[in-house]
Each structure stands twice: as C-alpha cells, then as structure tokens.
Amino acid sequence: MFDFKELEAFVWIVRLGSFRQAARHLHLTQPSISDRIARLEDTLGEQILERNQRPIKPTLRGREFFRHAEKMLQARQKALLPFQPESSFSGTFHLGVVETIVHSWLPAFLTDLSGRYPAMTLELEVDTTTRLLQRLQSHELDLAFVTGPVELEDSLHQRLCSYPVSFITRPSLLESVGSSKELLERYPLLTYPRDSRPFLELQGLLYGAGLSHIKVHNSGSLWTIVRLAMAGFGIGVIPPVICAPELARGELSLVDMPISPPNLNFYSLWSPGHDSYIAEAISAHAVSFDKEKAVDFYR
User: What are residue 151's phi and psi, to 5 degrees?
Assistant: First the structure.
C-alpha cells in the first residue's frame, strides 16, 4: 500500500511539472522524489506520469488518480489539524508581497509572525502583482499580498487594507510655479510599472481630463520614485503611507491636482489544497493585524 509521502510527491510533480521543482518544494533530493514515485507506480501496477513530456503530465489514469490523491491528502490534513498547534509549523513558507506593503506594515507584521511561528523559515519575494499572481498559479508561492481586487482561478482571497494615492513632490517645485496645474504641465509624473493597476487607472484619469499629453515615467521601485520626487525630478503618484517620514520632515509635500486617483486596495490570495492551512492562518492574521499602529511605529 502507498503512503502519504508518495502521494505528496506525485501531487507536487503534477502541480509543478517536474521532478526537480517538486524536490525543491518539498526540500528533498531528486533521487528521493524519483524513488517515491517508483514505489507508488509499483504499488499501482502502472505508470501514472508521462516522463517524456515537458512539463511532466499525468497519464489518463494518472489524472483521475491525481484528483483522489489531493482529496486523500486534504482529508489527512483536516483530521490532523486539531492536534497540530499553529506554532509547530517548521517548514519553509513562500510569501509574495507588493512593494507598497513592504514600505508600510510588513516589517511589523513579519516581526509578529516570527513570534507565532518560531520554527518557520520565510522565503520572501517582492514583485509586481502580475508576476506574483503568475508565481502563485505555478505553486511557487504559498501566499501573496497583492493589489486588487483580483479574480484568479482556483484561488481564495481576503481583503487586507486600502490606501489613498496622492501627488507628492518637493516643496520647492510647487513654490517655483504659479499653480498645481502648471506644475503638472512642467514636470513628469512618476508612478508604478506599466502593467500595474495604479498606472492604468492614472492613464485613464489623464485621458478623461484631457491631459493625455502629460509625460508619465514608470518604476518598479517605489523608493526610487520617492528619491526622484525628493530630488525635484518629478511628481510622485503613490500612496503617502510609503513616504510618511519624508512628508513629516517637510522633504516632500502633497499637491492638490485636477484629477484624483482612486484608493489602492490590497488582498491576500492563496491556492486551496491539502497544505494550505498555514496560508489561510497567516492570511487571517494579516487581515486582523493592526496595520495603522504598525505604520505609525515606523514613522
């Protein structure tokens, strides 16, 4: 009879499409993964993986077995959950986060999280929502904090927080021109990458206000935008929470403009599965975490 370790190896090979990726995810050697699959196929009496395909796919009967294997692993986890305190989790957790959250409440949240899961190893990835969602779909991430709302197939989500987006610049720039409209005409806007929701919303606002000629520069680094705005290069279009200390010190100031970007909303997303209980628990903790207090602490 097969055991759960063999089922787990099979499920992750199908999800990730390779023995190597499955071994990496489960923190095993590739020979160990291969050995588990060999034992499983020996028990079943036939091959359940098409090894000649890239990515590796299950056979016809392997696809049917995959559905049952997932259910068995989920049932096992559900049965054991009452006997496993959250703090006992000792594996590696892959968390993806957009940069806005990194510059607001993430440091305090991770400090709190390490107290709840002292044996957990965190693998943190900071990227755009688009790329994080791709990695979540390919099972390279356990949980992602992204800009939303997002409709992602086979995923669950919870709302985390919302931040206003404002125009931010060096105070001397505004003093050197007659009005905010003139400031907008003379200096470029600095904002999120082109494939992001904030950029697309800003572009729509400019077009609707007859300001489509305004130059917009993009950066994947919010701190770069803050530094460029402080240097007087342009006008940042970002949440003020990112640069609260600079605003408090008078190094940057908020500017009223003829257009007003909508708030940025953030969500946690994860893929349900037999091993998603920690992702669900961490997401729930992120929802209830006191983010305002965390942001104030780092100002």
Answer: -105, 105
